[in-house]
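Quick start: read one record
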Amino acid sequence: LLRLADTQSSFARLQACRPSSALRVRVKELYFVRVARITEAEVWSVGLGFESPDIRQLKNAFLEGASEQQRKEHDPYGREGHMSLAYVRAEVKDQVMAILGPLRRDVEGLEFGLETIVVQDNHGRQESISL
């Protein structure tokens, strides 16, 4: 959702911005893309791309008054979010593509609600914000 640099102050700011009800999220796409940051092998990522005016509103409230550099640190992709589901090697790319084709029709457009935001720091400690 957001990359938090200073977890404690960012967590407090996120709590102050939180909405009073669950965030509505829609699956925009089921994607299959080459992972550019992995250069020692050809690796592909299967994942879900989301769209959500609710998440965009939360991000905008959280980032209000932030410099352009801070915005890029906290929201590096500038989208509502994604979830990587699997990483696969090039050898099985064709099989994965065959499986994903029919799944796209079933997955894209699904909607759900987020009722909790979990923040995890660099040491693995977690704090939750209920919506």
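The mean pLDDT is 89.
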